[in-house]
Amino acid sequence: MSDRDLSPRAAEMLAIIRDYESTKGDPTEYAKLAGIKLSTFTWWRSRLRRHLDGGVHGFVEVKLAPSVKEPIRVRMAADIAIDVPFGFDASEVRRLVDALREC
Question: Does the pTM exceed 0.85?
């Protein structure tokens, strides 16, 4: 639905709400200054949201970048570090860490 398809009241409220959006003020104060109940103002804002945000609605496809499967570096001390590969076996790493602690 485009702006020109709106009823006269909706078009009037859209103009008021667009003006409010440009001020970024307090909605309670703005509604009072515009001579509108806050509940009416917020209802129209909700109803006319698609006109305010450029008509973007529904689902948007998001493509994620492939995850980087770099090793995790476990530093035991200043001179001891272990690079654990992606998909490691936790029990094996635990055994290795325990063995290093005993040294």
Answer: no
